[in-house]
Input
Amino acid sequence: MIDFFQHVINGLSLGSIYALIALGYTMVYGVLRLINFAHSEVYMMGAFIGYYTSRMFQLDQNPSFMNLLLVMIVAMAGCAVIGFVIERFAYRPLRGASGINALITAVGVSLFLQFSGQLGFGADPKFYPQIYQPAGEWSVGGLQVNPLQMIVAVIAVVLMLLLQYIIFGTRLGRAMRAVSFSRDTARLMGIPTDLVISATFMIGSALAGAAGVLVGLIYPKIDPLMGVMPGLKAFVAAVVGGIGNVVGAVIGALLLGLSEEFVVAFGRSTFRDALAFGLLILILLFRPQGLMGQNLREKV
Amino acid sequence: MNSAAATGTTPMLEVKDLAVNYGAINAVRGVSFAVAPGEIVCLLGANGAGKTTILRTISGLLRTTKGEVWFKGEKISTMPAHTIVQKRLCQVPEGRGIFLNLSVEENLDLGAWVVGKAKDYQEDLNKAFELFPRLKDRRKQNAGTLSGGEQQMLAIARALMSHPEFLLLDEPSMGLAPRVIETIFQVVQDINKRGVTILLVEQNAMQALQVAHRGLVLETGTLKLQGRARELLESDEIRKAYLGEI
Ligand SMILES: Nc1ncnc2c1ncn2[C@@H]1O[C@H](COP(=O)(O)OP(=O)(O)OP(=O)(O)O)[C@@H](O)[C@H]1O
Ligand SMILES: [Mg+2]
Output
């Protein structure tokens, strides 16, 4: 029972990291109908920004929760800037061109960042400094859990609630949903859609940056190609949830995190990566619009 | 009310020698007209004549290939669409353009984007609900659940939230029952009486000419006829070609 509970927590914390990344895919798809393949590299950049920030200020000297928050804020801000730049200089010039152009560009930006990362950071893995070490084991409802896994899940949930508030409780969020429904109609409302698209990239990238730092807490080994697998899986999670749907992305990601954890715990760990793609095939066969996806049609 | 030329007032909207292409297709070729403040002008024409293309170009969603659009003494044809709305030139697009994924109230709120959430927002909202009481009961409802007629009312109400001085309406009667169409045309006249100048695109030539002061007739991208609404209603040519009389 204790084991089972710990596995659930582990699955949720892994899933919440996927969720933070998946949200960026789904939000960008929502406003641009573009799969931003460079998104997984934004997550990688987040991990490295966190790494270098921690090293520069020697935050592992006296680990604390404040350190973690500080590093996360820096990484999120840095990634927001990276996301802004990617959109502004790689995708915006292609606005109005056919989708395939943007898709090829996305792959190009992704490769560019992977190999620039290898050049700039070195291809060898780096060990993440321990900027936060919660003491001992925590007990939740009488059950012992690993505090780091718990913290990661809680922070991710807080970020997702924040995003939920932005999307459903603010004018910017309303504009984002309007743009995702119809960019031209949004423009007819006087909404500066380019700004909204920039903001969407920045928010999605900031979440990926947070994920990059959080992953360093529980899997403390980072390298410039670290984004590839989680990025693909987060993309799968977004598709499973229904691409373009924010709640769907979170559900898909948690589902994926939990099933991966249980496959590793009770089955064969070699199946871990196959699981995501198996899930993708199943969903594409039986519910191509995703779990939460729906088709909206105008009434005539 | 008379045309700009007749009254000598400066036109509010001026379309000068407008041409618009889609790739190799010349959808609009050399169209010129003006709308004076306070007028209702209707733009008639068969399917594919280029009516929507003209409205989308005026709103800045499409770029001109040739020619210019001027509004209140400013050239707007090179401005981005969202800036044009700030000049109080608004459009209710073809097919209504309701955000079906948002609630009725959220749609109205986005309509007020250019005026900001000012203190008179609530007042504007009340005015919209006064004009279309049916929207009030459905304010929290998802706009996708509205009927076609209710969606058209929402589209008009939403445009009014931006305090337009000039309203472009693209086939507001499309797909609606006769009684609803009557309401819509009545509302168009009411809005105009409150001081909003209107350019109305319609297939429904008879009814449109009855509410409009002047009419323009478009045929495959060029203006074929224009004149006072009453004169157009009486002209044999129009009756034959556009009003379905043989
Ligand atoms: N996006 C587009 N790409 C290519 N051609 C287009 C496009 N939109 C419109 N056209 C063409 O331009 C011409 C004018 O179209 P437009 O939509 O302006 O006509 P309309 O007068 O509004 O017709 P309707 O009464 O059917 O709405 C048509 O021949 C149409 O096929
Ligand atoms: Mg049309």
